[in-house]
């Protein structure tokens, strides 16, 4: 993919460098030079740079777009000033919640930065275990879509559709797997460049180790192994998590979700650019939007980052829960999620124009109807899930041995209310054979009998208690907020802790 030449890869470098650095402030330009010096030192001198690999993980959102541009500026700076530069590996991870608009943004960014035909660049797309050169039109593997679909449903049924457990827990473990695969692929990389501050990295590492220790992992050994130790800790967390979700005997589900940990032959160094730059998007709006061609898509931009449409589905699930489980209105549940979303956007210091853009998509009745339609369409296209299946998920009628099954049937499927005993019999320990009920369950839930029977013997997670790893994960997740709501039983004002993104 690259020829490991010692010279700048193409004659466009001076023009690209001038165009790119023209959008950077003096502080950022100083940061480019300082980062270049640090990489030269880490590589062992200028002459070692041609074989030195630097990786950036690219989610496709606005923040990671800036990191890619910054590291490209460092690469060009070294090439033009020293006649040597490093190999830049940019790896993007996908899952079912990533719409095409994200890949189109990535493609525009790569074109603007001159990366697509540069032999000093490795552009990888990683779809779970499948690693391929980037192309905007790469199809998402059906197997990955199925994994993501099942994970959303199994997590969602355990969490009554609460945003972060439903969409983010399994995805965050998949991100760890992605880092392992991206960093060790094809001989590995020497450095991983990140936009996270050193403090953020330490806090995240400490949280992982606490969670890993509670999951029975030998964290002392992990702490001696650097980045690979973090991945080993996450593998242990993932094993505990998915055993809780699918059962101890679900070896195929456990094996295909195991976090990749690389090997001992290479240990990538992490270098943060956080202290050298500004992450407020309005400080480099012209760079991101005008030069790199970044677009804030209607689906891909939903409250926090611009790399995933799942936050829009989180809002949709909250609204469906209010309407179908609590007997309130869809708009009431939506308003509660928007309260959380606005709080999170301000915590992330998003510029007011982006906050207004996100919230403005819901500020009239007509727009809310449109957003509901978009969410319904995206759930079908991305995960193969109907609104009926999403309603079943937020109701969680199968957990706790079907404790909420009768209420679910009465509210959502009154024509099946007299079939409750038959459903219990199919889902119970004896697993009665009833083809009609089995087919109906698959249609209404999106899950097969094996997974439904696992849910039947599992409990709805009590997030106020530390008894499950799902509750422990959310307890350490900062993306939560107490929203003002209504107690559906009494009609009195209440507060509820919900999570989202």
Chain-wise SSE layout:
Elements: H1 13-21, H2 26-43, E1 53-57, H3 62-82, E2 87-93, H4 100-112, E3 121-127, E4 130-133, H5 142-159, H6 163-167, H7 169-184, E5 191-194, H8 198-214, H9 219-223, H10 226-246, H11 251-256, E6 269-272, H12 285-291, H13 310-325, H14 330-347, H15 352-360, H16 365-383, H17 387-395, H18 399-402, H19 405-412, H20 420-427, H21 435-445, H22 449-456, H23 469-475, E7 480-486, E8 493-499
Parallel strand pairs: 1-2, 1-5, 2-3, 5-6
Antiparallel strand pairs: 3-4, 7-8
Helix pairs in contact: 1-3, 2-3, 5-17, 7-10, 8-10, 13-14, 13-17
Question: Can you put this structure into words, describing what you see?
Answer:
The strands form 2 sheets. Strands 4-3-2-1-5-6 form a 6-stranded mixed beta sheet, sandwiched between helices. The chain has a two-stranded antiparallel sheet with strand order 7-8. Strand 3 (121-127) and strand 4 (130-133) form a beta hairpin. It is globular and about 80 Å long. Helix content is 54%, strand content 9%. Helix 8 (198-214) crosses helix 10 (226-246). It is α/β, with parallel strands linked by helices. Residues 1-9 have low confidence and may be disordered. The two termini are 36 Å apart.
Shape: globular
Strand content: 5-15%
Q: In what order do the strands lie side by side in the largest sheet? A: 4-3-2-1-5-6
Number of helices: 23
- What's the number of extended β-strand segments? 8
